């Protein structure tokens, strides 16, 4: 077969299943691949499709194919042959795509990922002496890549192995790659790129199966750099009862519970499950007019706990036609909902919230009562999990020690501080104290009394309850701002969206967001601590990009700009094109009308420097001249585009990914000059111009052509060398994404096109800034991805 290893990996995604009836639990994961990669073709293969493919394309291998006792071995063989024939990307159906995968594919001819390091310590891997394992659940290649023939020869040799892992699966793949890479192909178009686990396999089997992914903080940290996540469903070796049951299948191992026992000595502990699942009455007090109560009622209807009822106490009379509360109850289609209209004999609102809650408790038929507020979101297994922990602890009441707090209008999400969250109360009705006649804060005395009189268990599973700050809450905004500052984890900007998307698999996040009324404008808001994305909206930013032969990169460049959280009316753009041969200037000029409709200002300049070197751009012999030209281009662009903006953000045209809140996070660092950590798609540090010296000065032996050009790592530490540090002072900066306070440029800070203390261009800017008593900083934890070319 003729190899096409010099061609790009085709934008084609392959997936397989037994039939076209994909299980419901896998359909959302399947859609993630097409949804996040709209430019890719998609081909779905059933077992029948695979059988025909084998008969038509590989009749000689049919004895091997049909000789496997385990059906998954046939699928393994088929996926290898499909990619060998057509190229593209293969992904198991229990894989979720988290971001566009173009950045992974660019410049590569074959890609495979490493499983988590922990898998190498599992029994089967340890017995075989395989400390690292290559996983075939995600594969990408050009058609006819030479590794496929090498793998097929090993596969035929191993066809009689009793364990599918050795015959066709990851152990075979790992051994074949070791032979291949060690013998011949370490570089060039026939190479195999092995990606680190954090890009494709950021979580282990145990973390999936134990329920740990239900922890939003763990999920966000684990998937922060991932392009995809594999959930290790194991449809070929795990039974249906073990798969897809969700976090309620068993109590997640990470749940922490603290018990407070205030019962009098000798009092009988609450039983829990001796008579089966005890009935639970969820108690909702409402005025019945808010559109948000629909979500609370639907949240009750979706609960996995079967023996339940919802008691709704409303102190407002029904509307004569199409009452919203009664309509929401009908739409929920749940028979175990009771509506109680309270006749107050006067205007609605004459009874306090505490008095209405007592009416709900009195009306409850269940052995347990559960507070169910009308404007919050509840995970489907809230009742099941809380009742299970309550029963296991022999307790009479259960509370959450943390819950989620969401500000939809501000794109903020937090995991609260640790305390007894009264709104999450599940309590034995017989032990329930009376609510005081208060209009708010009525549940705090109830919980305090329970601590003194009952056995109370506090559990830590914050995703069970999402408290929503929508502007119509009982407490004022300052109350919730204090909770934001005290939160144990905070997510804003792009990370907020990522966590909400994960939560949205179980909660109606988008529907709720659309239903939240827009906040009323405030003429003179009181000053308060602001999240990073709010700070970014207040500052104007000028994004500047010198471009040359950039047509291939500009669509992605503009796509990433369009995803920014930053208000477009506070963003200006500036481009300077020079020395291009691919029509870059005309391409940009054609899009100016559209760009100028979206952004505050857009400037397009043109200046040729006559610099078209042969050979690689990183060759030491041309560095002085290349960077001199780039410095002049930056300075010319700056002088022609800078207006009244607060910040200047220099961005490379060939970045392939960065978070939508990039400007917000750079500004929030509070530095005059700051850069993120620029990496290649495989995670290696790309930007070697952002460095900190190991000593006080450079080694003079590394001075070449008037500028310091040391070998990688000689006397310098890069941002990848500072894991876990929030901000690092730097001696040099790169320009892949460089934020500079605009006033510094106005005061004369520029990119020297000459050797300034041995540095030029962006490194020279950092040296010049030091002369102005300004330090440049790097953020190791804020990653952006550069094309690998």
Automatic annotation (TrEMBL):
It comes from the Bacteria. Residues 515-534 are annotated as: Disordered. Residues 518-530 have a biased composition (Pro residues). Keywords: Plasmid. Residues 143-234 form the Alpha 1,4-glycosyltransferase domain. The keyword rRNA-binding does not apply. Residues 281-401 form the Glycosyltransferase 2-like domain. It comes from Azospirillum lipoferum (strain 4B). This is Uncharacterized protein.
């Amino acid at each position: 077969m003729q190899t096409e290893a010099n061609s790009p990996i085709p934008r084609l995604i392959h997936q397989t299943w037994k039939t076209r009836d994909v299980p419901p639990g896998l359909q959302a994961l399947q859609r993630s691949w097409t949804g996040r990669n709209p430019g890719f073709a998609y081909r779905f293969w059933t077992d029948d499709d695979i059988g025909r493919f084998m008969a038509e394309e590989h009749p000689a291998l049919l004895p091997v194919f049909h000789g496997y006792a385990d059906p998954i071995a046939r699928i393994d063989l088929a996926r290898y042959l499909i990619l060998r024939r057509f190229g593209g990307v293969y992904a198991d159906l229990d894989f979720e795509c988290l971001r566009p995968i173009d950045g992974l594919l660019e410049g590569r001819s074959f890609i495979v990922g490493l499983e988590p390091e922990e898998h190498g310590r599992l029994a089967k891997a340890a017995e075989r002496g395989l400390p690292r394992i290559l996983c075939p659940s995600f594969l990408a290649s050009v058609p006819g890549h030479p590794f496929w023939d090498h793998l097929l020869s090993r596969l035929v040799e191993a066809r009689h192995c009793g364990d599918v892992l050795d015959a066709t699966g990851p152990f075979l793949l790992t051994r074949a790659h070791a032979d291949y890479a060690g013998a011949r192909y370490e570089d060039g178009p026939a190479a195999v790129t092995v990606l680190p686990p954090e890009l494709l396999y950021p979580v282990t089997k145990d973390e999936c199966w134990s329920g740990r992914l239900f922890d939003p903080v763990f999920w966000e940290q684990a998937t922060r750099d991932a392009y995809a996540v594999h959930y290790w469903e194991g449809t070929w070796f795990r039974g249906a009862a073990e798969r897809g049951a969700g976090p309620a299948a068993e109590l997640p191992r990470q749940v922490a519970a603290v018990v407070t026992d205030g019962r009098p000595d000798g009092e009988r502990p609450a039983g829990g499950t001796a008579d089966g699942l005890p009935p639970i009455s969820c108690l909702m007090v409402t005025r019945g007019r808010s559109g948000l109560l629909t979500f609370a009622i639907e949240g009750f209807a979706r609960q996995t706990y079967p023996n339940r009822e919802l008691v709704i106490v409303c102190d407002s009379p029904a509307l004569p036609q199409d009452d919203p509360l009664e309509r929401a109850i009908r739409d929920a289609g749940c028979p175990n909902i009771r509506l109680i209209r309270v006749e107050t004999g006067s205007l609605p609102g004459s009874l306090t919230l505490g008095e209405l809650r007592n009416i709900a408790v009195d009306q409850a038929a269940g052995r347990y009562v559960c507070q169910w507020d009308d404007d919050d979101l509840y995970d489907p297994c809230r009742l099941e999990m809380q009742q299970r922990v309550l029963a296991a602890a022999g307790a009479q009441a259960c509370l959450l020690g943390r819950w989620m707090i969401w500000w939809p209008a501000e794109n903020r999400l937090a995991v609260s501080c640790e305390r007894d969250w009264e709104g999450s109360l599940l309590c034995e009705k017989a032990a329930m104290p009376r609510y005081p006649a208060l209009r708010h804060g009525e549940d705090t005395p109830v919980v305090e009394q329970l601590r003194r009189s009952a056995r109370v268990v506090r559990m830590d599973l914050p995703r069970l309850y999402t408290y929503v700050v929508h502007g119509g809450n009982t407490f004022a905004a300052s109350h919730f701002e204090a909770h934001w500052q005290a939160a144990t984890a905070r997510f804003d900007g792009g990370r907020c969206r990522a966590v909400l998307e994960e939560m949205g698999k179980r909660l109606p996040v988008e529907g709720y967001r659309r239903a939240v009324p827009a906040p009323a404008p405030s003429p003179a808001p009181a000053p308060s601590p602001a999240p990073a994305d709010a700070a970014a909206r207040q500052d104007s930013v000028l994004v500047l990009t010198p471009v040359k032969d950039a047509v291939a990169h500009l669509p992605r460049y503009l796509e990433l700009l369009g995803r920014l959280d930053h208000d477009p009316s506070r963003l200006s753009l500036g481009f300077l094109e020079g020395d291009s041969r691919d029509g870059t200037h005309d391409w940009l000029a054609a899009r100016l009308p559209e760009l100028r409709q979206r952004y505050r200002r857009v400037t397009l300049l043109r200046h040729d420097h006559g610099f078209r070197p042969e050979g690689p751009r990183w060759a030491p012999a041309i560095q002085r001249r290349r960077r001199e030209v780039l410095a002049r281009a930056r300075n010319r662009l700056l002088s022609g585009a800078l207006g009244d903006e607060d910040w200047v953000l220099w961005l490379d045209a060939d970045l392939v990914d960065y978070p939508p809140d990039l400007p917000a996070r750079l500004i929030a660092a509070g530095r005059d000059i700051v850069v993120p950590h620029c990496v290649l798609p495989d995670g290696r540090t790309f930007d070697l111009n952002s460095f900190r010296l190991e000593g006080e000065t450079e080694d003079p032996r590394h001075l070449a052509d008037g500028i310091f050009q040391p070998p990688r790592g000689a006397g310098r530490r890069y941002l990848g060398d500072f894991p876990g540090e929030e901000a690092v002072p730097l001696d040099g900066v790169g320009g892949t994404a460089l934020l500079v306070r605009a006033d510094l440029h106005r005061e004369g800070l520029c990119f020297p096109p000459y050797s300034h203390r041995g540095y030029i261009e962006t490194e020279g800017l950092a040296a010049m800034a030091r002369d102005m008593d300004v330090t440049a900083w790097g953020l190791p934890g804020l990653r952006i991805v550069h094309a690998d070319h």
